[in-house]
Amino acid sequence: MKSRDSKRIELICSIAELSSLFHGEKGTQRFLQKVVKTVSRHMKSDVCSIYLYDEKLKRLNLVATEGLNRELTGNLSLEYGEGLVGTAIKEMRTILEADGTLHPRFKRIDNSFEENFKAFLAVPITRGLNRIGVLVLQHSQKGYFDHMEARALEAIAGQLAATLENARLLMDISRKEQEEITPGQTESRLIKGKKVVEGVAQGLICFMDDSHKAGNLSDEDLKSYKDGVDAFRESLKTAEGQLLELQERMDEELSDIASMIFSAHLLMLQDESFSGQMIRLIEEGMPACMAVERVVNSFVEIFAGSENSRLQEKVQDVRDLGHRLLRNLSIKEQPQGNYRNQIIIAGDLLPSELLKLTAQKAEGIVLMGGGASAHISILAKSLGVPLIYVEDESVLRLPEYTDIILDANQGNLIVLPDRETRERYEKLSQTAREIKQLSQSVLDQTYTADGERVYLRAAVNLLNDVKTARELKAEGVGLYRSEFPFLIRSDFPSEEEQYRVYSKVFEGMENHPVTLRTLDVGGDKILSYMPENQGDNPFLGLRAIRFLLQNKKVFVGQLKAMLRAGEGQDLRIMFPLISSLDDYRAAKRMVRKSMEFLDRDGMSYNRNPKLGIMVELPSAVMLIDQLTAEADFLSIGTNDLVQYLLGVDRTNSSVASFYQGEHPAVLRAVKTVVEGARKNNCAFSVCGNLTNDLGLIYFFLGVGIRSFSIEPHQLPQLQRFISRVDIKKAEKDSAKILTLTSVEEVKEYIKRVLPS
Ligand code: PEP
Ligand code: MG
């Protein structure tokens, strides 16, 4: 029996090794070859092959092999379901055969040298629900592979999936590319937009879309860049170094969501059809900056025109690389390798793109047109980057690098500000610093003026927020939005990855309670790897608990990670968008199932987590007596409760004025929930944006709510406010508010009675 070198298996499973495979290799083909060689060496197999799946043609193509006839690479193609390899992809399952050649589905390939190999192991490479390809091992000795090997190869396939998908995209694009490669204002003014994430930033305009660019670089522009192949290679090398450094820093700072976010950049940078094509054009006499622009534009055109949403997502990566290469080629002093002192103007951004831009120090973001999805705004808030959105298309006609101030407190853009305006804004950021200093006086616990205990817990989106939350003395996490690690990545994070992230939340919270909310995707929180069909009303579609109950594997994986991370801790698991007892009971059953799996695997975990629901739907309010009789706790999710109660899309700016927290129906619903919870001794709290409004906090205190999940940086201000509230008076005022029948009356009344 051969020795099993588990250390080596760990090694190949580590992202570090996989990424080092990129860095050493130029070109996708050679990279794939290196992968099969490395896997075959680590797994001590005679053969290792990779087949990539072509979704359109429904065929599997052999793209790299170690051990079979190399001449078949690029020439051997199997049908979906054909042979053992085709079966592995079709049925999305591992195939392990002591002697594959005896299997009725085995397909003999002429001239492959395959007849020498008996033991057969094929693992499908998938990302979420997508088929990427198949990883195959073969060996001359019958029965050479066992279940341990199968599991190891599955782990390797999981690690390689993202990379292989990128490789597949690049190969696709280079094929298409071979088919078709073709080559200001001076006055200060104000552009009005809408604020999404507050803050102020100053800098130069940097466009992420090229819709503003009429033509190519002008002759004048050409003088600003170095020229020649050597200069280009130098800028390429610099870009590579910059990206690696960025990746490392991101891994350290944002380990929960930053996994390999720059890997597509690196792979593309080294690809023949990208940088190789640039070099060829320069050698043919084209100025280096033009060659960059030409190739970038042709890639952008192909990606943007693709029907495949994954290819469309690459547009931003390509543009970003183009900017980077041009910056490195510039003879002017440039903020090397980042977007410091720049304000990004983009049509639309994905969470991963926002992350990349902030990692590269973008000062602020202006989104054009459609507005910001809930996740973009939540993420931007957690990353601390000011963001507005603007409909006025004149922004697109401003010359790149125009000086602007982004006043996201007001939602304005000030183009070419004069000195006086600048000074005014500098003062404004000073006030922000003063607020930060004030936060140092925050107390360990929060009490009202008449001594009622109140719990201020954090709403956490990124691990980053946990640190701020503890610094500001949050007494635990009241809402951990677990979807962020899912949103940024391009496939479902593994149970292990999730376990590590959740463990860090507990570590950071030092024994305080932590409420982990299970995945809330759907609505406008779309994972790029989720099935595309969201329906006409995604907020009424397969969202949150509904998605999880239909994707039980994802649900169980997440619950297992939560239960494990919460061992010995005050763990609370909360289910979003619960509409009925049936939803809650089904979710609870999944918790029990996850525990059974953990028991079966001999894992230790928290056997007594508290289980709770988010009250976000009118149906949950109607059924509050029954729900609170079974759930351990609840949190009123005000963002969605207002949306669903009033029928107002929370992301649609044209109906923003109808989205009213002071609506009597909202206030009465809150009161109903509190009464139901009290009757059944079910713990209750409030989360969502209504907690940013002191008037509503006053009302919530008055109806008996003592626990709030808030954005961490709101804590000092909220604690000070609560310390001025007299509960007896708040109770009377809230009772009166509940008798009012119009929004205006409610607002007026609150304004009058609010403690100053
Ligand atoms: C809410 O709906 O109030 C809430 C906190 O959840 P999310 O904003 O993540 O939907
Ligand atoms: Mg919600």
Q: What summary fits the major beta sheet?
A: 9 strands, mixed
CATH topology of the largest domain: TIM Barrel
Given helix and strand content, the structural type is alpha/beta
Cα-atom Rg, whole angstroms?
Answer: 28 Å
CATH class group of the largest domain: Alpha Beta
Share of helix among residues? 40-55%
Number of strands: 23
CATH-scheme architecture of the largest domain: Alpha-Beta Barrel
How many distinct folded domains? 3
Low confidence ranges = 1-9, 11-16, 179-185, 210-215
CATH superfamily of the largest domain: Phosphoenolpyruvate-binding domains
Compute the number of helices.
Answer: 28
List key phrases describing it.
756 residues; alpha/beta; Beta-Lactamase; Enzyme I, Chain A, domain 2; TIM Barrel; 3 domains; nine-stranded mixed β-sheet; eight-stranded mixed β-sheet; 28 helices; disordered N terminus; binds phosphoenolpyruvate; binds magnesium ion
Structure description:
By secondary structure, the protein is an alpha/beta fold. It has 3 domains: 178 residues, Beta-Lactamase (2-Layer Sandwich); 107 residues, Orthogonal Bundle (Enzyme I, Chain A, domain 2); 312 residues, TIM Barrel. 46% of the residues lie in helices and 16% in strands. It contains 28 helices and 23 strands. The strands form 3 sheets. Strands 15, 16, 17, 18, 19, 20, 21, 22 and 23 form a 9-stranded mixed beta sheet that branches. Strand 1 and strand 2 form a beta hairpin. The radius of gyration is 28 Å and the shape is globular. The termini are far apart. Bound molecules: phosphoenolpyruvate and magnesium ion. Magnesium ion binds next to helix 23. The site of phosphoenolpyruvate (PEP) has 10 residues, from strand 17 and helix 23.
